[in-house]
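Case study: Small ribosomal subunit biogenesis GTPase RsgA.
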Amino acid sequence: MAEGKIIKALSGFYYVKSGEQIYQCRGRGVFRNKKISPLVGDFVSFDINDPNEGYIMEIKPRENELVRPPIANIDQAIIVSSAIRPDFSTLLLDRFLVLIEAKDIKPVIFITKMDMIDDLKNEEIESYKKNYEKVGYDVELLSSKKPNSLPELEHYFKNKVTVIAGQSGVGKSSLLNALNPSLLLKTAEISESLGRGKHTTRHVELVEVGRGLVADTPGFSALDFSNLELGQLTDCFPEMRADKEFCRFRGCMHHKEPGCSVKQAVKEGEIATYRYEHYMKFFEEIQSRKPRY
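Here is what the predicted structure looks like once written out:
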């Protein structure tokens, strides 16, 4: 019995890396019976039949997992937003952040195309950068004109499994191509009429980038909160998570309750107003969700 990590899933086969060798494996029927699917990122035990082929016998416990993209044991998610085309949106960024926080995955923020905006817009994004850094996030501002400087970002990837999240057209494939030119990932073209990119990736695979592994997949194609409970939402905002213990009532939802420390922090400028407004928008979205039976 050997052990390794699934680095690719394609057409019912799982490609398991063990040492320097990659084995093409199938999953045992017992997984299908239990409705368990091996995922890219899983640590597994497998039997080797032929020199490069085997059967997955056991899936080790997972740290976390995503449904779309289907991947397990992720260390971090790099959210790629663009300063322009498509325009930078704190609402969309916060939606990504909440979904990633809910999975106990560390978020990192990259904002691309900084060379394509004017000074006024630059000041605005620099201000947002400070806000997000105050919350505790790493934020990098990137220029599309200097892709060769991107190896400076390799420390983010070293010894980590990373998913890249962000709407189409923000420069995810360009970023990965710059970090590892041998990948030759097809860069998404911007569709001028739609203002968004065309999807270019079809299967899930972990590829080597910056001495780490990155999921070569669109990432987070579903941006709804269908799996998030109302009680979890506060904990997906780190600045509110830190303040909630000072609220008068345990289980305070920072909505209409008196003696709310979070609302006081917003009033005093300790928590950014737009972050609280987004919290309330997501709160109402989850609250108005139809119950599932």
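For the exam, be able to explain this: Residues 201 and 217 are 6 Å apart (CA to CA).
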